[in-house]
Amino acid sequence: MEMNWKGLPEEVLSGALSYLSERTHLPLAIIGPGPTINDIDPKNIPDEVIRFRMNMFFAEPTPRFGRRVDGYFWANDLDVMYELMKSTFEEKIYDYKLFFTPNEIKPERPTGKAVADKCRAILKPRYDHWWLIGHHADVVRNMLLRPLPTQTFQALATALILGFRDIHLVGIDMYRNKGTRYAHDYSDDIKARLAEKHRKPGYEENAHSERRDIAFLQHLQKCFPDANITNASSVSPLRDVLPDSPLMHGKPINVTPRPIVPKPVPLKDPKTEIERLDAEVRALRSSRSFKFGQAIFKPAARVKAGLKGIKLIANGNGSASASSKAEETQPRPKVPSGPKTVAKTSKPAAAAAPAVASRPAKRGETQQPAPIAAPKKGAVDLLAICHETTSKTGGYRPIKNYVEETSSQGRETALIDLRKLDRTKKGKIVFPKAKRTIVNSIAAFEWKAVNDFLASRNEGVYLYLHEMDWIFNRIKREQPDLFDAIAEGMRRHPVLCVSQLQKDYIDRTFSTPFTKLIYNVARDGNLDPAMVKMEPEVANAEKLVLMVGTIQNRKGPQLYGQVADLAKARGLPYRFLWAGHQTEDVGELSENVEWLGHQPTDELQKLLRQVDRFMLTSHDDPFPLSCLEALSWGVPIVSYHYSGICEIIDGMPGCGVFYTRDADDALNELERAMNDRPDPMRLFFHARPFIDCNHFIRLLDEATSNEHLALVGT
């Protein structure tokens, strides 16, 4: 798509966003809540000046800087903030023009579905400013370094990308006033509903920092050398890096009637650009910021480094190896169009024969155990107990990422592979002493040693589960003793859940003392916005529909096939693919589905980049990682409603949810989603927190270090 000089597609700028894009020749004031705004005379900001406000600015006693708010920016998902904003909107205290937030207002946020519906109704037009920033590759690469720049500088980046070049930062004190956080105080009622971090002076620890804000500002100045950014705060460290705004000296902002013509930008030589970006990646990889949380690039070197400190307790001879593969960025291949492989019998090998040409496995494709490290004296910081550590399925990968990262930070870890240590499941295992122990998946309960361990120890033990109704009910029906052991373990220990759907199920089904939501994470997803699928969809062209998962009854291959059969009967130009090998008898499979069999990781990523929709037909699926990977490439999801992925695709363009197991209903929703134009970059940014392992690691660290969870059993 042709881009204009501002860096955004013309179709975006011609929509509701044209309110701002047509006014970029005017000055812009980004007005913060710092105490120094009391030093500024509002009369010196003419009515023509565009105004951006942020977070809970509306708690100020009067609209001192005018009723009109041209752009309102926020990222905090707070009940009290939404309620105050709603009241100021309804009472016409402020005239909001555009809303900018990466948040999706879900029915439970703020309290009560009615309030949430009301907020969604009035927050229009609303844009995800992270999505807008994502259109500028240089800016988004820097923005996604950790810690994140504060809302002020996210708003500044948005303004520059929109085309504003005369920008005044007003009341951006960067928390230099240690006595108070804001120019206005909150009422006691508001204070009682805010966490301490939203009330006390200073930066939020670990979330933001002054140094990071300054570094991001300087990067923006390099990206937009024609911009005139000025400071209007007498105490802000911005005084040392920006010229004074006339507001600092009691003078008005000058408004010129003519637009500012941008300086010509010379065309960049592609070869030179690649060399520059390669140098930038190398610099980021060696930087402190990258080491502790860089969200875009994923060098294999970091993964290898993370393996070095892990003690893998596996087979007795200690033989183990590790391998990793850097993400490939190759052009999208064509989907194999060879003969379809259809299973007519219950034989897994025949049913799952791949329809693509076979080839030897490339080096690094097969996940191998991490090497054994010599144990250290004393307790390890983290002990992870897994029933196996070699598969590519979702159950093991998140905890593997967590163990690797914990080790790379210098903390001693131990990783138990139960299947390699004791295939009989009845032997005795001496587990290392640990400050924190995570038992991954209910499959670990099949080992007698694990149940003995859980019965004898309560302190610092957590269950991280990936199962729901289908599996629990099957175990209760077929293995009642195992089900009782699992229920007893869940009664004694806190449970970490991968989705709200799973958490609700466990809360209502088991007598669990404490449950905590820690959304699952997929490290194999795409983290580079430049790799997002961006080709416009062509009307009436063949549409590729993909499902990824083992062929088993829980995954719903029968429904998937019925939808494919019905689509053919209707004459719809849909082509249905299923990637994954067969693991159990599922009956006859549809001839209108191409059963591709197991696909190596790199081939699967290529396939995800080119399909039009990912369709999930599972009877239940707590939080499927394959869906996250699809979203990271900008591919919309259409899912049966009983899946945790529905919690993050609600309202996303091109996505859909069906509520019955009827093929007609499922196909109708797929067809509706196909006709709903997707927004690949928005999907990428929406999925990013679930692909960024640093986000997952921080939450899991917090969940397993809370003192009130240290001992919950009896």
Automatic annotation (TrEMBL):
Pfam families on file:
CST-I, Glycos_transf_1
| Regions of compositional bias (Low complexity) in chain numbering | 339-359
Q: Where is this region: Disordered?
A: 316-373
Cross-referenced InterPro entries = A-2_3-sialyltransferase, A-2_3-sialylTrfase_sf, Glyco_trans_1, Glycosyltransferase_grp1
- The stretch of residues making up the signal peptide is none
- Annotated Glycosyl transferase family domain ranges read 540-682
What is the protein's name according to its record?
Glycosyl transferase family 1 domain-containing protein
- Species this chain originates from: Henriciella pelagia
